[in-house]
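Lab meeting prep.
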Amino acid sequence: MTEAETFNFLINNWWLLVAISIWTIPWKGWALWKASKRNEPWWFVILLVLNTAAILEIIYIFFITKRKKQLHLDL
């Protein structure tokens, strides 16, 4: 796909970008909030910089934080 074709695709499907943004922003906000509350600066930076359409954010919220919480309870 050339640059012009990519640009035309984005112009013709602007609603797709809006939908992805509406989906991603709340997940990113929640994941960043959890990372800051848990004092995990590396996770905060990774979540802030990488844009994975909320996939990484969901993994962090539901799997990474739960696993670390269980490790603390086992001690």
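Slide two material, second protein:
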Amino acid sequence: MTVTPTSGTVHPMPHQIAYTDASLALRDVYALAAVVNGVTVTATARAHTTQQAELQAARLAVQHANPGPLHLYVDCLATAHVLTGLARSKSPLTEPAQELLQLAAERGVALHVQWIPRGENAAHHPAHHTAGHMRTHRRARRVHLPPLPPQTPGLVVRLRHHPDGTSARGGGLRAVAHGPLAALRILIDLAGRAPPGVRVRVRGVPPYAAHLWTHPEHAPDDLLASLSAARCALALRGSRLHLMTP
């Protein structure tokens, strides 16, 4: 874990401000970042999904906050919903969220959570930069963190590419898309129709579509909103898309 002062000496304040974010470094290893009262804190953690990693980043902020009110800004709707009681009770994010709220209560931190667009999140750049540094130097392969428990196998969907578009079929799911980024549009469609609590293996995903799914900040503006909403809806239902490139 590293702590980097970004705005001089930090003094206790009645109302604190924190921003948090998580970025995938390699496979199930994420870079976490929290900017708490002008101080940037980074760490690494394992998680099955980005939404689980986002909660760990929020926990990082609580751990480094002073007692008192803390206004926490996040760019993941699933994190905001589960920390404000809007998520369904059986969400896999519910238990870690309750543990985070319990930690905040024990430390005397009164948590106020608000969603903001990714472009306004001060923690996005340090999380993204740290993840990129880990990938560049292959550090993620040597992270000394306990392995994750295996998830229950789920459905298998295959993408097939045709001259006039892309189709997907398998596990009772079907989808068709045409035009640029058809594969990404299918992933968004599958995310909206995947059953609760399952992992959907999607075979034949083009590398660029897989990259945009895991890094929605790089997606075109016309797909960014639907992509972010699909990812958050998937997390709230406790499901996951496992993308398999050719």
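Talking points for slide two:
The chain has seven helices and eleven strands.
Residues 109 and 126 are 24 Å apart (CA to CA).
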